[in-house]
Design goal:
By secondary structure, the chain is of the alpha+beta class. Helix content is 26%, strand content 33%. The protein is globular, with a radius of gyration of 17 Å.
Length: 210
């Protein structure tokens, strides 16, 4: 069993995380796919992409205890067929994460801390944001910022948003688990969001709902 988290949150959301331990056939046999869905996954050239696609659907079914499908709009925003839930999805390395809510908009992002994120920090951290100079926490802090901005990008439907220019994360001290706040400001909105985050082994997971 690769379900490592399935939790109902106080925010009226449900958070699930799946560790991909299975091979393609094992995951496929857990699902009942429509012919067009089977064609989609079989057409992926990358084997890991196949596993990701299947693991999302297995995790969704485990979380909801029912067979549900997922579709995407023109901006690659996912939807649960039948409008049962709002859904946000993230993958990184061996983990798949889903955030669900029947009442709220949702956004989640997860990253495996695998490289020196400082090399690209200038692309997403703006002059109003503060990153700790503690060498033991600096990389972790930047990954939280990155995931938080990606989660807000998703919850706002990816509309006219640049991570550096339009999203600002307010100062916080990074802990293994905690909360933070972030602003999304553009021509469409000027909204404050509360986000939750946690560290699982070498992964950072950040999510929000509104």
């Amino acid at each position: 069993m690769a379900l490592i988290l399935n939790e109902h949150l106080e925010s009226e959301c449900q958070l699930g995380i799946w560790e991909i331990q299975e091979d393609y056939d094992n995951l496929l046999h857990r699902l009942v796919l429509l012919p067009e869905e089977l064609e989609i996954v079989e057409n992926f050239r990358n084997y890991e992409r196949k596993l990701e696609w299947l693991s999302v659907r297995v995790l969704l079914n485990e979380m909801t205890e029912r067979e549900l499908g997922i579709t995407y709009d023109g901006n690659r925003k996912p939807y649960v067929k039948g409008n049962y839930y709002n859904i946000s999805i993230s993958h990184s390395k061996d983990l798949t994460a889903i955030l669900l809510s029947q009442k709220k908009r949702v956004g989640i992002d997860m990253e495996y801390m695998s490289h020196r994120i400082s090399r690209i920090a200038h692309r997403f951290i703006n002059s109003d944001e503060i990153i700790t100079e503690d060498p033991e926490l600096n990389t972790f802090h930047m990954y939280i910022h990155w995931c938080a901005k990606e989660a807000l990008y998703k919850i706002c439907d990816k509309q006219d948003i640049q991570l550096k220019e339009n999203i600002t994360i307010e100062p916080f001290f990074p802990k293994p688990q905690g909360s933070l706040t972030g602003w999304v400001r553009n021509r469409l909105r000027n909204d404050l969001f509360v986000l939750e985050y946690m560290k699982i082994d070498n992964y950072v997971v950040v999510w929000s709902s509104k």
